[in-house]
Each structure stands twice: as C-alpha cells, then as structure tokens.
Amino acid sequence: MVCFGTQTALPLNLILRSAIQNQEIPAVPVYVDGMVRDINSMYTRNPTYLKNALEKRILKGNEPFYTKETFSYRKLSFHNDRKEILLQFDYPDSQDGAAFLEKAESFAQATGWSARISPSMNHNATALLLSVLLGDRIEKISYYAEKKSYEVTLNDAPAEAVKHTAPDHTGTAVPEQEAAEKFRSATGWNLVINGQLQAGSAQPAATFGQHWGDNRQCPASSIGHSPAGAYIRDDFFLPENPRTETVEQNLAFFCIDQAFEALPHRPEKKSLKQDVHGKYMEIAFISPGVGYRYAPQLRELSNQTGWRLRIADKVNQNGLFKHAQLLCMKYGISLAKFPSYLPERKSVQMKLQDSVPGESLEKAAAEFEKLTGCSCAFMN
C-alpha cells in the first residue's frame, strides 16, 4: 500500500503501529519518508496539542508513530561515491548503538552499502524539549558538544507549571532532578542547572579528560565539593587545602606562564570567570584535549596560587585548520575544499583532491593529533 497524503498517512501510521504491537498483523516493514516523517516529528515534539491519550503516551516516552524495532530518523542522506547512507536523528546519543550496528550489518550484507548515524544533535528540538521540561523559568541555554552537556540558567521565580508543561500531569512543574532524568533519557546528554550537575545526569568519572579519550588520570582531590556542599564539575582543579589563600590574579597569570614556558604546548588565553561558587581562572588551549594532557601541572598551579582552575571547553578552529593545512603541505596532500570541524567527533574532516599514499595520511593524522589533541579524517 502506498500513501501519499499526509492527512491519510498519519492515522494509517498509528493504526499499523498499534496492529503490529498488538500482534494483530505480522511485524512487516513500514517505510515512512518525506513530509510524513517531518509531520510525525512535529507532533512528537509538541504533544500538548494532541488528544489526551496520545499526549500522555508521548510524555511517558512511548513513541506513537514507530515500533521499537524501527529507528525513527528525521533525515536520510545518500553518498553514492562511497556507498553509504547517513541517518540523522534529533538525539543520536540516545540511540541503541548495538541494535543499530546489528541492523547496519544486515543492511550492508543485503545491499553492499554501509549505514551510520550522524553525530550531530538537533539543538532546536533540544531547546523545545527543555522548554517542555522547565517551562518559562529558563533565562539562558548553552550547550557543550565536547562534554555532551547542556547548561541552563533558571530564574528565581517559583517553579509553577504552565498548562500542559508537566509531563506527569500533576499540575506542578517538573522537579529539576526529574527534568534531568527525562532529559538524559531522551537525549543521552547531561543537564546542568544553575551551575550544578543534576542527580539525574551521569556522574563524571575521576578520569580527567574522559571526553577527549585521554588516559591520564587526574588526582581525586581535584574533584570534589565546595564548602557549602555544592557539586563542582570535573573540569575544575581545586587546591588540596581549601584554606589556601588566592594570590593576586596577575601573579597567578604569571605563574601559569612560567609553568608552561618549557612545555610543548602553552595556553592560548587566560581569563577570569565567575560562576555560582565564585571567581575562577579559565585556561584555553588549542583544544581541551591538549589541556587535559597537563593535568599534573594544572593541579600544582591550583595548589600554588589557591585559584580554582578550569580548562576552556572550546577549540580554536582557526588554529586546527592552520595546522591541518601546514601538515597537508608537508606531506604533499592536496585538498579539494577547506577543512571542516566536527565537534561531536572532535575531529577535522578533509576531502582529498587526488589519491595519496596511506602512509602519508597516517603520518599526517598522527602528527595532527599530537599537535592539537583532535583527530583528523581524510575523505576521498
């Protein structure tokens, strides 16, 4: 059966899903694409405009339009040159990776094409989800792809729910911990509210630089709590002795410069920041991955100066591109277009103009990682 009209396709989609789920018909494949897929996503993101029964199902996390065996991607792209399809999801990090790999292997055996998930999150859908969970209290939203984390600043107004905002339909706003649990379940990302990582999110491990694949361990004393007991995120270095006096900020900057003077990498920027716990110093490198290599030095600087120190979580993309282009010149690699940075992969992608020996590409990639803390990928 082929259905072209969205007005007919939507209810038919619901009928087929219900019939398969209730074992009234065999679990036959149902192919959904085009505007129907977009409309389905629109309803799923705006459940408050649907009938009560369907609204409750969506807010409880039950996908109404697709079966559990189906990956409800929002967009599909084809790459004929490398026989690959790319599936884009609103929240790729919440997908079942093992199940997808199993289906991708079956797909490859049947068609000769590979399939993979795009790592890019739909941040418009995420902002809407946060509005549903937290209502009108949101003042500011920031996200950090490298840490797979969203940070939200809420105002001091009482947590009163706007009509239909509370997923539990109790007439009260969703508590922040519950919101974090729902957010992580839906997106696979952590949620930080007013500077505090919520209990519903995954606790950071004691391995510093885990988001960048660094195996150097940060001493446990650099991860802890403020005197008031508020959680301090894992990207801070704290003095071992909480009574250590903080030195004057210019002297602290000088100490940082001196500590890195003879090291392979130096901070690109040092700045004074402030959060709910007070002032701290943020140190920027070409990438956080490079900064994580110097955990021992940063811990010692924190003890020496009394300052909380934090590695900036942004990369210097211009610096990455410059290193990439210089290495391409060094190894005789011609590029068809300007390099691009993929934050979810912490990688620079470069499209080759001509064929290049694999040994040269491997050497360039290894040297790039050593210089920048990021990986690079060459595409034909």
Kindly estimate the percentage of residues that lie in beta strands according to DSSP.
15-25%
> Largest beta sheet, briefly?
4 strands, mixed
Give the strand line-up of the largest sheet. 4-5-6-7
- What is the arithmetic mean of pLDDT? 77
Count of separate DSSP helical elements: 11
| Overall 3D form | flat
Order of helices and strands: HHHEEHEHEEHEEEHEEHHEHEEHE
**Overall SS class:** alpha/beta
Distance between the termini: 39 Å
Please bin the fraction of helical residues: 25-40%
Radius of gyration, in angstroms, nearest whole number? 24 Å
Low-pLDDT windows of residues: 59-69, 159-173, 203-233
The tally of strands reads: 14
Question: Main traits of this protein?
Answer:
single chain, 380 residues, alpha/beta, 4-stranded mixed sheet
Question: What is the element layout, followed by pairings?
Answer:
Layout: H1 6-21, H2 35-45, H3 52-59, E1 75-79, E2 84-88, H4 97-111, E3 114-117, H5 123-134, E4 138-144, E5 149-154, H6 176-187, E6 190-193, E7 196-197, E8 236-237, H7 249-260, E9 269-275, E10 278-284, H8 288-292, H9 295-305, E11 309-311, H10 317-330, E12 340-342, E13 347-351, H11 358-372, E14 375-379
Parallel strand pairs: 2-3, 5-6, 10-11, 13-14
Antiparallel strand pairs: 1-2, 4-5, 6-7, 8-11, 9-10, 12-13
Helix pairs in contact: 5-6, 7-9, 10-11
